[in-house]
Structure formats: structure tokens, C-alpha cells
Amino acid sequence: MGYIKTLKTKLGGHDGGQNGMEKPIEPLSKHVSGGKMKSVKDPNLVEIPKPKGLPVIGNLHNIDLDSPLFSLIELIEPLGPICQLTFGSELNIFVSSIELLNELCDESRFHKIVTAELEKLRYVVHDALFTARNEERNWEIAHRILMPVFGTIKIREMFPEMKDLAQQLCLKWARYGEEYVIDVTADFTRLTLDTLALCTMGFRFNSFHNGSVLHPFVDSMVRTLKEASVQAALPGFIQSFRKRSWRRYEKDTAFMRKLCQDIIDKRKGKTDPDSHDLLAALLGGRDPKTGEGLSDDSIIDNMLTFLIAGHETTSGLLSFALYYLLANPQTMEKARQEVDEVSQGSPIAVEHLSKLPYLNAVLKETLRLQPTAPGFILAADKDEIIGGKYLIPANVPIGVLLHMVHQDKAVYGEDVAEFKPERMLDENFNKLPPNSWKPFGNGMRGCIGRAFATQEALLIVAMLLQNFTFEMADPGYKLKVKETLTVKPDNFRMRAKLRRGGTATEFQRELQSVGSVNAKTSSTPSLVSAQAAGGDKKPLTILYGSNSGTCEALAYRLASDATLHGFHARKIAPLNAARDSLPKSEPVIILAASYDGLPSDNAEEFFDWLTTAEKDSLKGVSYAVFGCGHRDWVATFQRIPILIDDLLQKAGAERFAARGLADSAVMDLFVELEKWTTDSIWPAISQKDGKADNDGEGQLINSLLKVEFSEPRQLQQYSQLVEATVMESRILTTPSAIGQKVHIDIQLPSGVSYHPGDHLLVLPVNPMRNVKRVLSRFHLTWDTIVRASGNDSVRIPVETAMTVHELLSSYFELAQPATPRDIRVLAAAAEDEATKTLLNNLANTSYLEDIQEKKTSLLDLLEKFPEIPIGFGTYLTLLPSLRLRTYSISSSPSWNSSRATLTLSVLDEPATTEGSERFLGVASNHLAGLTPGDLIHVATRPVKGIFQMPTDLSKAPTIMIAAGAGLAPFRGFIQERAYQQQNGVQLAPAALFFGCRSSHDDLYRDELDAFESSGVVRVFRAYSREDVGSKPNTRKGYVQDSIQAEKDAFVQLWNAGAKIYVCGSVRMASQVKDLVANLVYTAGPMDAQKEFTPQEWFKRFEKTRYAAEIFT
């Protein structure tokens, strides 16, 4: 906002030094000598490029007053990522690359400055959020008071008001008819201004009910903005000759402020406890830091600021979005199809908006190409060096040109000028370098209304696509940008036609009908809150973060243990639910994992918040952290748990126990959690509270989980999962194969999407064989009705009746190896001393050999020691919750966007525990037993990190390496390549190296042969247990042997820029990595070989050209 007018100021003259000006811009003479920046002794610094200028006026003559922004871009584009210009005697620096902008966004070095038109608007709104200088207190107070109002939850509560205004726009277009030529920008300006006024202060301008006559406030606001623009462009001494204009400016300002004061007085005169809008916060809010409130004048300043700053940018976004959709019909149809699939014919509801990723990407891409606030101005706190070589003097204005930054080819590729929403989908957007997309400004001075604008824009475009078709009034219209306070399409006109025909009256009834959405409408984070456990148990909070559900299962196990040690888990919740709200009145235990060095999906918001927590902001919080990880990811092992631990302490929280660590490569996570809590947590908390720890194992003999029998009730599933249908299930291996592999084809529900290589989360069901074993051990029939009560830390529906078959099938891990604690509970319950001794030995000296390595479950032990009198409730309390299983999707949505396939090995092998028959994999046996028509509960999850398919298959060679079911993600990759080939893409080379035991488990052989014959991929196979004879491109041995045999072709692809993907077991991936490192190292530059080992040298490619996905 105001950036374009800042340019015009520089063209028209100086400000004149009016009262209230910020620290004067440094004169050129302070930083230049002889027409150049002052030289420095550092030989690594270079002069910032600049175009030729004229004496006295500098580069003023290069800028077009009617199009200052784009003439500036045209001037500086040839100069590179940074340049310096002079306007009169004033030095200005402009930055246009993401690399340099990333440094400028460091708020410890650079700050926002207020210049030109924004400075003139200070007469109207003073030190409000947008026009304040960093050192002014009022904006800080207002910012802290208003942040909760513009949080996601509060914005959702504004949806009805937003929809009210959006319906008014839709009804206007419907009533005017399909021949009416719509002034797009004008109508969107009316809409966004009315929406802001209604949502933030409960006031209606009624812009759609008064024909072409607008509310007097609107006229005053328009004149005020225009006058501020004129003042900014004229030399200061001219103002004394513009007395009439100044009187009009004063009169308009007084009128707008009087209207706002009337609104305030009216609001003060009535009590409305349900009012939670911006005005309510401004009137009643108190700064959480200082306890101060805002004066009426400051409240008016901020009311006007939101009306002025908010409506222009959002109306521009909507206008540009409609233009780009009309200019790209396929994109519009794709967005419309998404809206239709999500809404299912119902009126757009707030629940729908989060399910529109493509439409959200359309808006992001629109703001990339046309940031409606086209830049912002910063200054260095002191002399700084950026890019390692450019000197930035203190207090010199640095203009950030977002139109150039957002089209940086180094980040967005050669097609930066094309409108491609796909690049803004979450899986691609999240991979962008920091600060690559900045339409809402930067840091603490960024746009506080971002969530508001995003929800408003999503709602409006979704409603328009759902109800209208559009065409340009002038089919030959080419985008022309109008530069005013912001940027908007110039003279953009269109026509709108109701999609389903009918009259405007019928359409009105349709809009006002009550839509139903099969989704939960709670606007608060989902928390599992335990009820008070009674007695003198002290509360604690347990927070978890992981994608696979492991830490969640650990959290519930921990909660169950807590009750036995005199504590009650008041909350068991994802880390994101604790953002901004870590309790200080009770201990907090955090269980977290890393995903390629990043936080899990349900911990990202918490982690982002924690990284910005101020010193001592968490003073009073008492915490401990338990980290889960896998040592094969050496570079990122335990990264997130360690950072959370350190960041909490830096923010003033007190660590009451040393961080726990579990390595799933060599440890049982439940066992390690048990050791950590027994040795560290319970003693530490008990000592802190001045009481002795309770004997947990002794208490478990008399379980707190009480079971009673009642009528059945339907099982409640995980809320994040959706119901899907099995369309096909077939065995991929022959009867002679060692081990069975199956192919499952799944119909996904509407609105669920994925990309090649993504994962499918599956909620499994325990094998019937194991369920029957439990039923037999406890003398229960499958249809016995049970109801659990007394211990809500166990993750089952408490006080809910269900059959014991449902309970055992769907809620607990029956085959999980027993932990030492489990075994000690059995020992405590045993009545025979010999049995006690034997069990205690198993829990200690022989645990690793007899329990963990043999995968001996609690059920195995109960069958081995049937005489132990343990209750069914105690048994359930000891079991971990059933986890979601993760599988790579083995198809591409280009094959069928509503279907996803899985390729998996079925784990069914002889048991190593004495007396047990076979060990069955829970999820694989469940999936293998499904037949067409069966329902399962699933969720898609985007693959993270660099294990994503190349976006441009014409330029990126690909090497895929897999063993067994590790072929799954690459089948999806190959399907996508085939689809693009059919659509005219000239594919870059790709090779698949695939290892299996023999021809009996050579997966998808016919399909891969067909792809190979059509040039989609070359396949090289290795059979480990079968002679291959003269079979082409097939070797006896392992996949590594196949790579070694084809090393010349492998290295040739590598040298052509290939990216390597590996999917398989830990052992296979490790050996492949060593081999690949040696091959490319040997073929690499000789100077590298003198300095590094192959593995050291290859590390440089692990984040860009080598991606591995390991399964266990």
C-alpha cells in the first residue's frame, strides 16, 4: 500500500518536512562521493549497479508518471538483482531477487519505514497499524490486542457476515442478467469495503442497495486517498497555495472520524456480550503485555486504517483472479470442478473452504503475478552487507519490487510469467525457499488481516464459480494494469450467466436455503480432554506431534501410566493445539518426532510459534521432552525434539527432566518411554510436588479401567479419516513365490486428492486369529457387550457400549511386544513365586533376547502363564492404541483421479515365540483380506522433502531404485510419465532398477514391459534366488548388482542431471547409497577426489538429487 505513490513522490519533489515526519531520508551526499557510493576497504564489496542519470534530477526522467511501477521495473530489470537510483538528491536502493529479499526480511537488521503517501495519511489515521513507525507504542498495543481477532478461529466466526455480502453481489449480477456488462473492479471494491465494515464494526454501507449512489463515507474516503496521493507527489512549499484542497481534506477527514465516533458511541451505549468483532476488541481489549487499552482517537485511527488498507488490496486480488481464470479456461474448469465436488450442490459453507486447495492455489498464484500491494520499503538499522558484497547504508530506503521478486527464475523457473496454480499447491509451495512469496508484507509489520482476506476471497470466488459462468465483455481484452493506491486491472469488463438457468428470484431462494455439510463445525482445535480422575490426583498436560500416529499412541500410554503415579492427564492433544497456550499451572510432557528434519503436520504451527517466542515469554512453564526418531536419518535425527527442548528453555520454560530419546532402529519405543518416565519423569514431578511416587505396577493389578456390559453402539473412527471403497484386490505373486504381495485398488471419496509418490494412511483391523486368542484367554464371546469407565486416559470411547470384538479389532495393538513394565505387572499379579521370578527375569536380564527380538506380545505371555489372575481391564490398560499405518500410493491420479492403489507385502511368517503359531502383520493382513465392496478408512498425506516427482519431466532425468514392494511409489511415477508422454511431452530419460527374489515375484511385469516398449522407462532387474539365463537387462543377485552391471548407463544419466530415488529396506538403501556414491564419485571431478571420501563428497547431493524412502 502506498508503494506506487512513494515513487511518484520521488518524481514530484520533496515532502517539505511537515510535522510528524519520520526520521528524514538520508541525503545522497552522505553516502556518495563523486557520484558513487562511498568506497570501503573491503575488496570483496562491489558497487551496486545503477543506470545513467542526469545532473541534479538523477533518474527522475526515466520514470513514467502514469506508470511509475512498471517503468521502474523496465529500467532496473537489466541491472540484476539489486540497483541504486537517485531521485533528485535522494539515494534509493531496489531489490528484485528472492535471495537478497530473504536477507532483508531479517527484522533484526532491517525495519519498515513510512514514506510518501503513507506519511500524508498520518494526518487522517496517525499512528495506526499501517502508518505507524516502529518505535511508536500505540501500534504495538493495538497489534497485540487485535491479533486474537484476526486469528483463524475468529475469522471463521465472521463467515456469516462475509457470506451475506457475497450473496448481495451474486444477486446483483443475477438480477442485471447475462447481457449486463460488469465493471469488475468497481463491484469488487464495493463488496470488499462493505465486508470490512460489517465484519469489523457491524456497520453497513449498503453499497449494493443504493444503485450507483454510494454512502457519503465512501466519497470522503476516495477524495482523501486522492488528496494524500497529490500531496505526496508535490513539493512541500506548494501546499500553502492549495488552501481549498486542504480545507476539503480536513472536512473529509473530520466527517470520516465523526462517523467512526458515532459508531463507537452507539456500541458503547448497548451491551452485546456476543459481539467479538474488531470494534469490540478495540473498545474492550487490553494489551496482554502492558494492560493498557486504546483511546477513542486511537480506535478511530485503526477503524479507518482497516477500511482504507483492506478493501483496495482484496478487491484487486479478486479482479485479477477473475481475469486469470477467464484467460485460462482449463484452470477455471478445474477450480469449478473442485468447488462442485466439495460442495456437492450445497451452498458454500465455512467447512468447505479448507477443502479447496486448488482454488487457494489460484489465489496464491494470482498474488504471485500481481501482488496488489506491489512492494514495501525497508531500511537498515545500521550499515549492512547483503549478498556478501553489497553495502547497504543505514536509513537508506530499500524498495522491494514484488512483481520482480515473485518472478525470480532462480526459484520459480523459466515459466515464471505463466499462470500456473499448480506451483502454489501446498506440496510445491512448502518447498519454496524462505520469503519467496510476500504479498502480505513481512514479519511483525506484515498484514494482520491476511486470514481475513484469504477467507473472504476463497468464499467469493467459490460462490461465483459455483453459481455463474463468465465471459469477457471484450474477447480480445489483454490485461492492462492500473496503478493507483494499489494495482488493479484497468478497464476489465465481463458478463455473468447463472449456471443452472432460472430467474433471479429462484436463485435468491437457492442462496438463502440452509445448506448441510457432513463435517464437524467446531471452530476450536480438537482436544482430547480427560475428566477429573477424582481424589487428590494432580493435573498434567501431554502433547504429541508425529505423522504416523506413534507419538499419539505413546501419549495415551503415558496418560494411562500417569494415573498410577498420582497424576491425571487433563489434556492429551496435538502440539498445534497448544500454540500460544502452554499451561503454567501443571507439568507439560511433549512427545515429538522429525520428518525429514521438519516438524510433523500436527506440530508445524506450534513449532513456528515457538521459534518466535520471546525471551521469558514462557516463564512459569514446566516441561520435559521425549524424542522419537530413526538413526538412519543421520543429518536430522532427533532434530525437532532437540529444537523444541532448546527453544522452550530459551523462552524461559523450566526443564524438569532431561530429554528422553528413542531410536526406533534399535529400540522399542514403548519400552524406552517406560524407562524414561520410570527413571526421570515420575520421580522428578513427585519431588517437585513434595510427595512420594506411587507403586504403579502394584496399582495396575487392580485396574482403574472398569468394564461393564451393555447394548452395542457403533464404533467411532478417527476424525481425520474418510471412508473409501475397495474396487479390486489381487495377488501379484505366484503360488511358488516366497511371501505374498498384493495389489489393492481403492475408490477415494469426492474431494480427496493426491500426487504421485504421496502416502495413504490406513486404519487397520487386528487379525481375527489374534482377536480370537484374546477372547479365549478371557473367556469372552465375540458379541459380548462391554462399556469402559474409570480411566479415560485409555484411548477408547469411555461410557460407550460396544462388542468386545469391535473393541479388540479396532482400538488396541494386540501384537505389540510386551514392555518390561507389562511383564512386571504380570509378575506382581502372579501368585506362584517361581512364576514371579521367571517373569521378573524376562523383564530384566533376558528381555532383549526372549521378548524384543522374538516379538513376544503380552498376549503370548498370558497364554504361556494362564494361571495369572489378571483382569480384562488391566490387560486393555497395558496395551498401546492401534496406530494408523502408512503406505506409498502406487498409482498416479492421471490414471484415475478418484482411485489410488497400494502395493504391499503381506507379513505372515512363523512365530519365534514358543507356543505361538504365526506372526501376522496387522495392516498387511487386514488389507490382503479385503474384497471388492469392502469399506476402509484412509487419509492421503503429501510426501515431504525431496521425495517428490520432478515437475518438469521433459528436463529432469530420473533414476528409480527399488526392491520388492518398494516399487510402489515408482509405479505411480511411471504412470505419470506415460500420461504426460501421451499428452505430447518429450520425456527426459528414466531408468528403474528393480530387485526381487525371482520371476515369481517380479511385480507388474507385463505392465512395465509395455511402458518400456513405448519409451516411458528402461527397466533393469535383479533376481536374488533364480538364475536368469539370457533374459535381457536382468542379473542374478541384488539390485546393487544390477546397478553395478549398468554403471555406464547409470553414470551417464547422473551426468545429465538425473535425480535418484530409492525405496526399500534400511539395509538395501544403505548399500545402494554407498554404491551410488562410489560410482558418481569416480566419474566426478578429480579435484574432489583429493579432498573427500566418496560418501563425504556425495553428501552435497542428499538434499537435491538423492531421495530415499525407507520402510520397515
From TrEMBL:
Reaction(s) catalysed by this chain's protein: 2 oxidized [cytochrome P450] + NADPH = 2 reduced [cytochrome P450] + NADP(+) + H(+); an organic molecule + reduced [NADPH--hemoprotein reductase] + O2 = an alcohol + oxidized [NADPH--hemoprotein reductase] + H2O + H(+)
Domain FAD-binding FR-type residues, every copy: 719-950
One Gene Ontology cellular component annotation held by this UniProt entry: cytosol
Cofactor requirements of the protein: heme; FAD; FMN
Keywords on record: Electron transport, FAD, Flavoprotein, FMN, Heme, Iron, Metal-binding, Monooxygenase, NADP, Oxidoreductase, Transport
PROSITE patterns, alphabetized: CYTOCHROME_P450, FAD_FR, FLAVODOXIN_LIKE
Highest taxon, organism lineage: Eukaryota
Positions of the Flavodoxin-like domain: 540-681
InterPro entries linked: Bifunctional_P450_P450_red, CysJ-like_FAD-binding, Cyt_P450, Cyt_P450_CS, Cyt_P450_sf, FAD-bd_FR_type, Flavdoxin-like, Flavodoxin/NO_synth
Gene3D superfamilies, A to Z: 3.40.50.360, Cytochrome P450, NADPH-cytochrome p450 Reductase, Chain A, domain 3, Nucleotide-binding domain of ferredoxin-NADP reductase (FNR) module, Translation factors
One GO MF term: heme binding
Membrane spanning stretches: none
EC number assigned by the record: 1.14.14.1, 1.6.2.4
Enzyme class per UniProt: oxidoreductase
Name of a matching Pfam family: p450
Residues binding heme, per UniProt: 447
Family: In the N-terminal section; belongs to the cytochrome P450 family.
UniProt name for this protein: Bifunctional cytochrome P450/NADPH--P450 reductase
Record organism: Trichoderma lentiforme
Lineage: Eukaryota, Fungi, Dikarya, Ascomycota, Pezizomycotina
